[in-house]
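Handout, section B. The chain below has 238 residues.
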Amino acid sequence: MKKWFLLVSLCVVLVSFSIGFAGEKPRLGVLRFTNNTSAGWWSGSTGTDLQDMLIAELAAMKSFSVLERKELDAVIGEQNLGASGRVSKQFKSQMGKLKGAQYLVAATVSSFEEDTSGTDGGINIKGISLGGKRDKAYMAVDLKLIDVETGEIADVRTVEATAKSGGLNVGLSKGFFSGNLGKYSKTPTGKAIRACVMEIGDYLECSLVKGKDNKCMKAFEAKEGKRREKTKGSIDLE
């Protein structure tokens, strides 16, 4: 009877552990964005600004465990302070509790185009038109998902966004724009940036949380097919 009870208990523990592990959110670390374009809005801090924007987007989705890496030194310093004995045992941070990322998210702005032919009602800052009637911005971001354990590229995707000057307030949150990007928050450029960040979040949720057999992946594959055909159509082959 005792052996049977122990066997049942062990099965319950294993099932509970399995369920808990399966229900764990993917742990993501977000790297600083890089730039392969001559976009006028890119400055020395823009890569970090976009990194912060994507971190905020992923955290707000509640589908991921987003790990802070930029401020890791401050976290370690706080733990070291607790270990020094200068902090009350009741309030000190415990060592060995930091979580490691499963994946690192790397993103590169690979293409940016801006049409500012219509400047009625707009303003101009250092030669960059903001808010013209027919202003339009196009942006593409190459996304890489890196498996931390193996170092392999687990997934890649190119996301695109085209934005016009109309309806700029839709889907925009000024709080997501910081630093040099702040002045672009209500422009087609800002809208294209925000749309790409949202698209990255949606794709990662589809790929890592919903599963690649989900219907959302079919929608992303359709977008990818159209993007490839459009790219091929713009190339003149002899």
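Note. The domain at 26-231 is CATH 3.40.50.10610 (Rossmann fold). Compare this with the example in section A.
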